[in-house]
Structures are given as structure tokens and as C-alpha cells.
Fold:
Amino acid sequence: MKVNSRLTRKYRVTEFIAEHAHETTTPSKSHLLRSQRKMIIPHEVHLADDSGITPKASCELMARRAGGRENLGFIPEDYRNYLRSKRTMQMKSGDTGGVLEYLQKMQLEDSNFFYAIQVDEDDLITNIFWADVKMMIDYSYFGDVVCFDTTYRKNKEGRPFAMFVGVNHHKLTITFGPALLYDETTESFIWLLNTFAKAMSEKKPKTILTDQDAAMAKALALVWPETCHRLCIWHLYQNALKKLSIVFGKFQDFSKDFNKCIYEYEEEEEFIIAWNNMLEKYDLKDNSWLKQTFALKEKWALVYGRENFCADMTTTQRNESMNNVIKKYVSYQHDLLRFFHHFQRMVEDRRYEESKADFKATQRSLILSFDVEILRHAATIYTPAIFKMIQHEVSSGYDCSMYISSQNGEVTEYKVTSYKKLFQHIVHYDSSIGSVKCSCKRYEFAGILCSHALKVLSSRNVMKIPAMYVLKRWTKHAKMGNGIPTNHSIIHEDPKAKIGMRYKDICRMQVQLATKGAITEETYNIAISYLTKAMNDIDVCLEGRDKEASTSDGSLINIEKGWCSGNKDNVKGIKTKERFRGSSTRPKDNELPSSQFSQFPTYVANNTFMESSSNMSMTELLQAQLSSIEHGTDDVTNSQSKGQNDM
Structure:
């Protein structure tokens, strides 16, 4: 049938064919006709997409709820087209706008959310780092040991995705801060380490484990010289298998001898002798890779690292396991915005696992392998994961042989030999203070007493683990109290700098107070009550202060909290990562001039601007900011809003 209105401006039928041009369909297939389909998307569809549920699974679920595919109202192709259109709309502003919008949204939801971006001379984003308040709090409690790795590249551009991770009191892996980097050069790592320290209130880890990356080692030596840098044993083994594949295949005992050099020796002289004997035994004295590896022995041989606390970690496999977990959430097909969203899903799921572990630790009774007082005591203070480690050490201690080798006043020296072992461990027990110290240094390295020390304590009728050897980070109450150190020990002559440091301390404690106080109605009422009392006491204390001094102090606080000297609207885009076909090698550190990134500006969350190459102190930076900004209201909330609008 044809309808026309050209001549009379009224619609009329100009042609009609009574016969059907195609066969009529049955009612069960009518939903396949385009005219019979209508895309009515329920709210659950968006939730399913955000949760990573595939379109096929979503359509199947909706069809079952509707009583069959014919009752759904649309076909799977319509659903996929809808999702594609939705993602196209999100990408209209480009990766840059989408990523910045996401980060700013996170900061609006959480005022303590931290992010920083680095741009190059063309105003293109090169590096991105972010961390939410939960990551900061976790780091305050468990940031003594950090693993760092950049092996994961689950994004379209193949950018290195770096994560700072650690281990909590349940022996679960926790994330301290992720980053998307442009490359793996020393300059990028220096920026990242400085930014990470800034986000974590300048607290640096005692120990960091990384792979054998020369650029990262150089950056750590420059930025965190006081942090103990240990190399991942797992990566060391992988490199050994590649470089010494013939030796591993020819000699079955080589792996055992190589393993002994890494783990077993307690004295440096013994390690050196064993290493030289291994080289001579397998005719490897001229092997270049082993020479290079031996030059780094202080970073991987346990004989040099026993006194450094590593939370019982010798590898970065926690990063490797996290990389495996991430693969379940994101893929190479994801753009940067979707990568951010799905990474957050992973973080939330991991935190739920921690909540379940917290519940089990407080609501379930631990099963003792044998009923002794020291294990009953350990069950009351340690989490289940750490209790299992303690129980293993106690059990191993009962199989150890022991004798007194010397006595010097209150100090007794024991020699303890583990079951089926020939090596003797020396344990010193001081009865005057109840201290025990073993040559294996397991407590110094892992934070729990070894079987040798527990054997000696048992022989001295010590029925409980001495309080001095109960490390809080392993206990059920690891998160009780304030985990963030204050800056009282830092001395500043400038009174404005003192105000700034005190302000930061209070803000950090406020974050923990808000996080814990919001959990229940009771904790909320306690927090509000004490905060109200504190505000009243402070008002009384400040009643007699000079108005001019108060105004000056208030201005400084506003600058610290919410000022930005740079305009983020200048950012033009995200720098495209060049990808080379036929080669998986990372860009070498010497491929990039050392000055290329040295002058790039960094935009930091809470709208503080930082220049990478600047050597200005915080006081000088604040004074420079003070001279270039107009005084506004003293209200911190208004200041935050102003800073966010500037973004």
C-alpha cells in the first residue's frame, strides 16, 4: 500500500496490493519483527552492566523472569546495541573527560579521596594515581611492608598498571594505591613514589618488595633511601630458570643448593662459602648472570634481610595474585573509564572478604591441635590466619632437641636443632626481663616467635606468649586506636608551618573517627558527643585570641585544604601509549631523557598544585600560595567547594 499527499495535501491511498509480499509470521515469532519490539530497559540492566554481568547472561535472566524470550519485548541484539550506545555516550567527552569526571565524582562522595595526575609539556596526561580513604587507613595500620609491581597491562593502550599492596592481620592482600603509568622509567617511578608518600601523610614503608627492575631500584634509592629494598624471590627463580635452564636440567641438586643460598644461612661467612662452593661444584664461576645476581645479594639473600621486618613475605606474589584477580573484572577491551569502574568493583569485593574474615575472627572459636595453655592464649589474641602460623611453630617446637650451651648471669644460651635438621640455632634467654632471641630471627622478619624460641620458653615454664612479642598488626584488634602517627617530633620555626602540621594531624585523625563512627548508631552518637564537647572546649580556649591572628590562621588552613594554582582545564587529553609490534620489552630507562618529565606539573587531589622539579619546602610553598591568592571565607566547607569548582 502506498500513501501520498503531494497533489491535494491530503493523505490518500494511491496504490494497494491485496496479496502479501511475504509470509505472515506466527504469534510465537512476532517478537522478532522490528515493529513489534520496544526497548524498555529496567533499572536492573544498568546494575548488571556495572556489575560485570555479560549481556548474554542478563538477557537470559530477564527472559526467565518475563516467562520466555517472546515476552521480553526485545532481542539480545537490541540489548547489545543499547549498551554500545550507552558507552558511546559516556565516551563523548573522551577518555580524559571521563576519567577526570570519575575522579572528581569520587572526591565529591569522599572528601578525603586523593588523586594526582601528571601532564607533559603538551598538556597530555602521562601518569595517574588515586587512593580512597579506606586505602589510607589500611596503610596507616599495615603499611610497614609494601609490595610493588607493574606486570599487569589490562587496558587498551597497554599502559603499565602499578599497585602498592600489603598484607593485613588476616594475611589477606589489601590495596594501598593503584596507578596508571605511561612508562616504567626512573622519572615515572620517582613521581609515583613522591605522590604515594604525599597521599599517605609522608609515611614511608619500612620494607618494599619489587621485581628486578633497575629503574625502580634507582628511584627508590633517590626518593626512599631509608626504606629497605628487597627483591622478589619468585622473580629471581624465574630469571634463574631462564638464564640457567641447561644447569637446572642437567643437575637435579642445583635447585636445592641454590635454594639453600637464598634461605638457610644465618651468617654471612657461611653464605659466601656456600655460594662459592655452588659455583665451583657446577662450574659456574664465569657465568655473567650469576655474577650480576651476586652483586645484588644484599637485596635477596635472607642472611642480609632477617633483621628487616617483611611481614613473612619474600616475594611479590601478592601482586601476582592480585593481577590474577583483576583479570576477572577487566579486559583489554575496556577503555580507561570502564577500567576505573571495574577496578573499584574488585576493591569492594576484596573489602567484603576482609569483613567476612573480621566476623569469623570474633564469632568463631578456634580448634586447637592439642590443648596447651600457650595455644589457648594465642587463640584469644591472634586472628585465625596468624593463629595457624603460631600453632605450627608450637607443634614444630615440641619436635626440636635442645641443650644449654652456656650461662652468663641471667642470660642462658641454648642450642636448638629442628627435627630431621643438622643445623643448630642459638637462642638466648634473659630471665631478668623474660626476653628470648633466636639466631634465625623469625620474630624480627615475620613478627611471630619461632619454634626454637617457643621451645626454650616452654622449658622455662612460660605458659603465655610474652606481651613484648605480641605484634599488634597480627592481632584481632589490629585496627583499634589511631594508626596514623602525628608530627609532634617535627620542629618548625615558622608558626604558620606549625599550624599547617597540626591541621594535617587533626584531619588524618578525623578521617579515622568518621570511618569508625559511622558504622553503628551507638558509635555515631559517641563520635558526635565527643566532637561537640571538643568544639565547645576549643571555642572557650580561643575566646581570648586576637582577631587578626585568627584571620591569618584561617587563611592558611583554607590554602592547605582547597586551593589550586593551576587550571585543570588546560589538560588536553591522555597521552597515547605507543605500542610496538613483535616486542614485549618495556622501554629502557635510558630511552627517555632524564629531563623530559622533570618539569611536568602534577595536579593533586584536594586541589593542591605541585611542581615535580621543585625543591621548595611545604612552608615556602604555602607562603608562595598565600601571596598569590585573595583572602576568602574561613569556612573550610566553602573552601573545599571553591577548590572543586576550580577543577
